[in-house]
Amino acid sequence: MTDQTITIYLDDSGVLDKNHPVPHFVYSGYVFLSLEEKDHAKRRYIKVVKRLKSLSGRNDELKAATISVDSKRKLYSVMNPFRSITAHVRTDRVYDSILSDKRSVHRYKDYVVKLLVKRTLEQLLSENIINPDEDFKLDLNIDEQPTSTDGYYSLRDSIYEELKNGITNWDYGTTKPPLFNKRVEVNVKYFVSDHNYLGQAADIIANRMWVSYCQDNINMRKRNNHFLLPFP
Q1: Is the pTM of this model over 0.85?
Q2: Distance (Å) of CA 69 to CA 46, 66, 106, 211, 216
Q3: What is the pLDDT of residue 102?
Q4: Integer CA distances (angstroms), 56 to 49, 50, 52, 167, in order
């Protein structure tokens, strides 16, 4: 049984395409430092969802693309007490070869997720919130997207390698040490958001962060305990 469990929920917003007129793509979501905190966040979010559904007479998922600005604000605000993270990609600055086909795009998305997770955990380590000398478990939950079964395992395995074994760059003769020294467990799950409230919360914040870049409105992405990672 591991002593430390970090749970992350992520969703994306925007289009990772060189030819798209809006050159912004984001992954964004929430980081929970314990199972108790995750459950607390879920209860808070559900309470607001039920109230909004009661007021509107809706019974479907409250997705960012289909609800009012005021409803989005309320669903975003109820998650203010919790840590959030964002990876922002300027698609017009990404090499053409990376976005040349669907497989390359999927690999790049995995790279963005992996680095966002790693930098987030490095931040938590620097704040002494997690301990590199204790067993560690990561539960990473990502909105379902078309990919192969091999893609699921490659993301999980690549994150595990970074956390447990570190990375050796043979071309440059450099080695990056692992983040953790004891047992490491990494789980990657792909969720369908209409059955997952914290996945829905990730949809709301991802949409808000994407809109903030589209409108060049830095105030929209000002949050306490928010970690931002720019790409490329």
Answers
A1: yes
A2: 18, 10, 31, 11, 17
A3: 86
A4: 11, 10, 6, 51
